[in-house]
Amino acid sequence: QKEVEQNSGPLSVPEGAIASLNCTYSDRGSQSFFWYRQYSGKSPELIMSIYSNGDKEDGRFTAQLNKASQYVSLLIRDSQPSDSATYLCAVNISPGGGADGLTFGKGTHLIIQP
Amino acid sequence: GAVVSQHPSRVICKSGTSVKIECRSLDFQATTMFWYRQFPKQSLMLMATSNEGSKATYEQGVEKDKFLINHASLTLSTLTVTSAHPEDSSFYICSVTGPINNEQFFGPGTRLTVL
User: Is 60 exceeded by the pLDDT of residue A4?
Assistant: First the structure.
């Protein structure tokens, strides 16, 4: 059974600091990993995708993947109050090019304190 | 990424009635769309995979006769909640797999309340 685990939080971070969000997954066959941001009452918005071990940076966001440890993380630099949201980790076991539904974690509620 | 719309955004219905939710891929032809459900303070749960021109694939525990899915074109999938009951009240969200590496893009969601 595919499982994705996240600390539900809330995680409180001062404005301007680095927010670190973590996620572990159970299925070693997982191939694709995603971070979504979800504001209250809204649908998820894709922030980052990562497919190979190491770091991937996009603006203030850095995703990190370690398949051996079955661990994926998201770092948010220079945190802003607008980053306050629930961050969902999602995994997909389908190899690139296939289409498969995502398994989501329960999300980490992030609060950026002004 | 892909742009996805849903209609309606919010619906309130009486118990026992049926509700149809539309999901449209506005800028991308999608042979596959996904339907998720999210209960309050819970994460998204995949309900089914909608396949254009063929039957949908349902996740374990999801009743296919209750949640009817039709994917008649490359841009439209519909989810019909039949004989809705209060426990079906939830946030229903569809997604489309974009052209790059299985990235999924979500519609704005439909909030269903069954009285």
Answer: yes
